[in-house]
Amino acid sequence: MSFMSFMSFSSFNPGTRNPEPGTRICTPILSPTLGDARQAIAQAQPNADWIELRLDFLEDLDPGQSRLTVETLVAECSKPVIITFRPKEQGGKREISLDERLAFWHQVLTLPDVQFDLEADFVPMLVEKLGAAALPWDKIIASWHEFEHTPEDLPALIEQRFPREAATIKLAVRTASIRDLMALFTAFQLLAAQSRQRFILIGMGAPGAPTRILGPALGSQVTYSAAPDGNLSAPGQFSAADLRQVYHIHRLSTATKVTGLIGKPVGHSLSPHMHNAAFEALGLDWVYLPFEVQPQSTDLADFVQFLVHPQSRQVPFQSMGFSVTIPHKQAVIPLLDSLTTIAEAVGAVNTLLIAGNRLIGHNTDVDGAMIPLEKRFKLAGSRVAVLGAGGSAHALVYGLVQRQAQVTLFARNQEKAQALADKFGTNCRSLEDFRGHQFEGAVNCTPIGMHGTANPATMPVTPQQLSGLHWVYDLIYRPRLTPLLAVAQAQRIATLDGLEMLVEQARLQFAAWTGQEIPFDLMFDAAQKG
To answer: Is 378 a catalytic residue?
Structure first.
């Protein structure tokens, strides 16, 4: 069954079924020893609402003393507790035989005041061993994990895999695409419309990240964070601190308006830190999420159609506009109803605006880049070199030409560079031909020197080529002091990093979506902390 037909299973009424506040973040304890587990519990409790004790991670667990060990750890917890003892084939830490599992749960299931996570296919074996009457059904979470894919027919899986007696069902599936994400959003609607059982629904992996943040607002009993040491019990988890302090997960509901960033990768972005801090400061019931959208697939078209466009979206929340980053700034254009003047001139979109029933492409990169530059340096009549011919170079060249700078483009890909130069009436030369003494300033629009690139210690040009420049502007913001800027400073050349541009373009997006201004310092401070 496709997610489009899945929509007919329920009509979701926003605001009608939200979980109680204060029960949203469950932090797993993945420690190898009892002592380590005690320390991890203490670290987890300030930000966690639930503690999951993953006993399959405990290397010094004595099978004959399982109950005593669990009681010892539960006594350390001031928050509600979930007990889990998962075998390796179902995502656990180690090999656990069926006899070991049966013996463990036989000792532990009578513990009071905790919940028990049991694999759904293991429950019948436990019933056969202990008898149905011996199971504390009101405290059982029956779980099912699909680590390879999102099953096509989620309603059938939900109906067939889970015991009806369990108080809570938990389904975690690997998401790889926007269609997978949509299947999960519609599964939320199906489960929320039912009153039979509580549920926990999770999309594992980067494309499923929005389910980890919005899940409790859409009816999930909890969402799972990373462990206190940053280790993950499943791919795509956020830290409990970020769920609480960046995404403000405890105040989200189905009435919350959703914005976010689309691109790949998006996990490193500082945009959620900036925008969510701004929403919180102004008291807006909005949230900004990362949406990983794959290139070279139907993902981008699916995202626009089913999550964004006001005439076709099919999500249980109100989308309010999105940021667009690489590799989608140009690819998204054919999917839009129109472009603003600046986006059309640049030929790239970094902002999606919703106006009535129309989806409009806008560009805040130009002004975002120019505002900090114009504060420091004279541009009109200045000779400026632009290094690179990618998407950000389009915005920089356009902005500089509009401000009457004399621009020369330098790039390795001469075909791309020549097309960009012809578009804006500038000169184009090989990167090897760049000589700093011929220019007042230079702008690096390449990713060379960025944290996470193949050679982050390298530079787009040599130190000798910088000689004679008055200033250097590097659009990279991680790290702020790139090798290029470090060498420029050593030569007593004025420098500007990319963090201010990031903040300025975000402020312009924020104003376009909300109609409200936010102080630069607030967003800048949030970006620095991110």
So the answer is: no
